[in-house]
Specification:
The protein is an alpha/beta fold and 357 residues long. It has 2 domains: 106 residues, Aspartate Aminotransferase, domain 1, CATH 3.90.1150.10; 236 residues, 3-Layer(aba) Sandwich (Aspartate Aminotransferase, domain 2), CATH 3.40.640. It has an 8-stranded mixed β-sheet with strand order 2-9-8-7-6-3-4-5, sandwiched between helices. It has a 3-stranded antiparallel β-sheet with strand order 10-13-12, with no helix packed on it. Strands 1-11 form a two-stranded parallel ribbon. It has 12 helices and 13 strands. A hairpin with a 5-residue loop joins strand 4 and strand 5. Helix 2 runs parallel beside helix 9 and helix 10 runs parallel beside helix 12.
């Protein structure tokens, strides 16, 4: 909570996991940090055992076979990869399609690549599926997707990955799938990787983050997996802009991926329970039920004249305004589940009060 002259603000806008990694991952970091081998430059392209660990996970959890040497790149967080993939796929003047609504940092990569930003509209009536028929196909170099979606909190609607493959075949564009929240799906769903779609590895890549599944936000460790040519481009760029990822962090990543996975299941259960509490607290107060099939967010449409600004100034609760995620987010708001139970309950009480007026 943040205090002001008008009283404390309950913050339901954050996007940072509130629970860190399991103890065995921290223990591995500490042990590796004490190892003298960790204080020189690591292999610039990542530890082979780390690449193998992510390949093992893709096979076991997502049903995807990866060549760890040719089809996996280690990156210092997928936020870095968002920009670098734009740099290695787009020429100046070509376009990159970004989901609308979508993660606010996607446009940074487009701008730094000197490319043209084009919006890929997500259709609320179709479960926030991309409307490829309305997409601008001119000089399209890449299309970014994100399921489970931030901010829309939906898992990939049926047929979306197949539609993306066909769009790429027709346009020559590369598909970049942001799989940061891939493991955080609810109601008995199984994580669904874009790379499991037939033809996907020939046409695109997927970004996997250690931040959301394992609570390793701030450790700066992630992967780009899939098309071997794109992985090679990314690694060539990395050779010139950094000297690898700290070895101890990579070894901790191996411990997370190869070790017990009960913490991932516990994380999913915690967020699903909080999702249920949000839905229960707001039931009957909105025209449509809040959306949350995955991630640690809930996406809801505010009834006019209620706005996120009024929630903040009149009810002292902060949520993420939908407008910050693109034009099609106007009138919507994102509530975070990555807060303590006490903060969530306090915030929901205020949101429910605002909706009851």
């Amino acid at each position: 909570m943040a205090a002001s002259a008008a009283g404390p603000v309950v913050d339901l806008g954050r996007g940072n996991p509130e629970v860190g990694p399991p103890a065995h991952v921290v223990d591995r970091l500490v042990a590796a940090g004490r190892d003298e081998r960790g204080h020189g430059y690591p292999p610039f392209r990542g530890l082979p055992e780390l690449k193998q660990a992510i390949a093992n996970r893709y096979r076991a959890v997502y049903g995807v076979e990866l060549d760890p040497e040719r089809e996996v790149a280690v990156v210092p967080g997928t936020k870095t990869a968002i920009v670098e993939l734009a740099l290695v796929t787009a020429e100046r003047g070509s376009s990159i399609l970004l989901p609308d609504p979508g993660y606010p940092d996607y446009p940074s990569g487009v701008a730094l690549a000197g490319a043209r930003l084009a919006h890929l509209p997500l259709d609320a009536a179709a479960g926030w599926a991309p409307d490829f028929e309305r997409a601008d196909r001119r000089d399209c170099a890449a299309v970014y997707l994100n399921y489970p979606s931030n901010p829309c909190a939906v898992a990939a609607p049926t047929g979306v990955f197949g539609d993306a493959v066909r769009f790429a075949e027709e346009t020559g564009a590369v598909v970049v799938h942001d799989f940061a929240y891939g493991d955080l799906v609810f109601d008995g769903r199984r994580p669904a990787s874009f790379l499991a779609e037939p033809g996907a590895k020939e046409l695109g890549v997927e970004m996997f983050s250690m931040s959301k599944s394992y609570g390793m936000a701030g450790w700066r460790l992630g992967f780009v997996a899939g098309n071997a040519e794109l992985v090679a481009r990314l690694e060539l760029l990395a050779d010139h802009v950094r000297a690898g990822v700290f070895r101890a962090v990579q070894e901790a990543g191996v411990a997370a991926l190869d070790g017990p996975q009960d913490s991932v299941a516990e994380r999913v259960a915690r967020y699903e329970d909080r999702r249920n509490r949000v839905v229960d607290a707001l039931r009957g107060k909105l025209a449509s039920e809040p959306r949350c099939e995955g991630t640690f967010f809930v996406w809801l449409q505010l009834p006019p004249p209620l706005t996120t600004e009024r929630l903040l100034t009149e009810y002292r609760v902060a949520v993420a305004p939908g407008e910050g995620f693109g034009p099609r987010g106007a009138g919507w708001a994102r509530i975070s589940l990555a807060v303590s139970d006490a903060v969530l309950d306090a915030g929901l009480e205020r949101v429910a009060a605002a909706l009851s007026v």
